[in-house]
Amino acid sequence: MYRFLLSRQWVILTLLALLLIPAMVWLGFWQMDRHDQRVARNDLIASSLEAEPVPMAELSTPETGPDPDDRYRPATATGVYAADHEVLVRQRTNADGAMGYHVLTPLVPEDGPAVLVNRGWVAAGRDLTQAPDVPPPPSGEVTVTGRLMADETTGNTGVRERSGLPEGMTMLINSEQRAADLGQPMLGGYLDLTETTPPDPADPALELLPEPDHTGIGAHFAYAVQWWLFAAGVPVGWVLLLRRDLNDRRAAAAKPADAGGTGKPAEARPQPEEPTPVGGPPA
Question: CB-based contacts of 236: which residues, under 8 Å, 6+ apart?
Fold first, then answer.
């Protein structure tokens, strides 16, 4: 009765089920790993933002850059802005999703490596080949406080640096690139500006970048549970299909033959009696 499982249809169906189960289990663990990464990132951001500001030179060097555990930590730097080496980072959005630029300006201390400061966001103009009007940085020596960030690369962002960009524009926030443009060493990483002392007199000032979200965990945990439920449902579905096919075959095998095609057994017909011979029955 079970030889039909060797048919082409059932062999393909069984192989497909055997492939889907481990694939869905793996996808569930992948989503669970994404959930754990998001939780760890939230914990890192929360603890870093609560830390007291320290000089950026204590957390980074030109050779190594900041430790991954120091990301988002408040850091300070003192110096004079090198406005002549300011660049705009293309294709950046603000908190409302509007397209614009991030404004990168090196801060040069009296002694020691320079610091790359992301001063904030400015809206793009209608002509993307022309830089919009950007409020100038404060003149004279200032002390800035910002969130310590790691350098952007194509590997960690997926963004590729382009050639032929308009002058003064770039695609990545990278201290190594800006150090080469400045012509002097620069601490690895950069600061997302949060405060300037004395206050920036520019009016209107650049739009400061919002604090990174560290409360939402996304739907990765729910997706993991869904994939595991799907994996559990595959063998259940396979068994249900097997039972239905088996019941159909048993019903077809138990169906009686009917010569007339009516599905009812043929009735027995009466046999004719033999004629009685003349002269009466034999003695």
Answer: none
Q: For the chain, which residues make up each domain, given as ranges?
A: 2-44+219-248, 52-197
Dihedral sign of CA atoms 150, 141, 186, 111 in order: negative
Check if the beta carbon of residue 120 is closer than 8 Å to that of residue 207: yes
What would the pLDDT profile of 12-69 be if each residue is shown by its tens digit?
Answer: 888 999 999 999 999 999 999 988 888 888 888 887 888 899 999 999 999 888 998 8
Which of 151, 133, 228 is closest to 188 using CA atoms? 151
Tokens in use for 277?
A: 């011979």
